[in-house]
Amino acid sequence: MTENTTTERVAIVTGGSSGIGREAAARLGRDGYAVVIVYSGNQAAGEEAVKEVEQAGGRGIAIQADVADETAVAALFDRTEQEFGWVDVVVHAAGIMPLSPLADLDLDVFDRVVRTNLRGTIVVDQQAVRRVRNGGAIVNISSSLTKLARPGYSAYSATKGGVEAITLILARELRGRDITVNTVAPGPTATPLFFEGKPQELIDRIAAEPPLERLGEPTDIAEIIAFLAGPARWINGQVIYANGGSAA
């Protein structure tokens, strides 16, 4: 394994074209990272995210990949190494969140959620384990919904509970490697994924729940991700619930 002795750090951010992933990519750009924006289908959004990284002071490229496709993800890491030489940080923020009461849940939709959110984490983390240099970090994204137990989120929360389990085990499997593995579990955050399909009354009610009486902002979560990606070397194998004090 190559030792991390160079100054520029390189990050891969899945789900980097929107929401928390996009804000995290820009935040890492501010820290001088070269950032690979991974998007699923919206190339224009991916290129816009690259511009934000560059405006923040980093370098960037956008690559399309299905995070649940092991061949595509391996090619993504290959391309990153070809462009920048190595990988230091992997932020896995890609995910989908269709909502339904369990009794009405379309099992084809459930399979799609499992494929993207759970299998995608296994596939991305598997490559991360093989490619990230010593001194690096793997940061997965879960959700405070694993604790808040809000109706309609059974499929999503089940997959995010799996992400947390993967994180805790992987940190221990990497004993002897100078690589940290953590998960950030945001509460309700003002992203397109959160707003989709919700009436304003529900949004207002959810926003009033934390003691801080607001939704989280992507910047709130990006700061935590940047901390775990760089200076937080003694935080390892943890799930950090970032929800403004919402009861769990």
Outline the structure in words:
The chain is α/β, with parallel strands linked by helices and 248 residues long. It has a single domain, classed as NAD(P)-binding Rossmann-like Domain (Rossmann fold, 3-Layer(aba) Sandwich). The protein is built from nine helices and seven strands. The chain has helices spanning 19-30, 43-56, 70-84, 107-131, 145-148, 154-173, 192-195, 200-207, 218-229, and strands spanning 10-14, 34-39, 59-64, 87-92, 132-141, 179-186, 239-242. A seven-stranded parallel sheet has the order 3-2-1-4-5-6-7, with helices on both faces. Helix 4 links the parallel strand 4 (87-92) and strand 5 (132-141). Helix 1 packs parallel to helix 2, helix 3 runs parallel beside helix 4 (107-131) and helix 4 (107-131) runs parallel beside helix 6 (154-173). It is globular, with a radius of gyration of 17 Å. The N and C termini lie far apart (40 Å). Mean pLDDT is 94; it is low at 1-5.
Looking at this protein, list some descriptive labels.
seven-stranded parallel β-sheet, Rossmann fold, disordered N terminus, alpha/beta, 248 residues, single chain, 7 strands, 46% helix
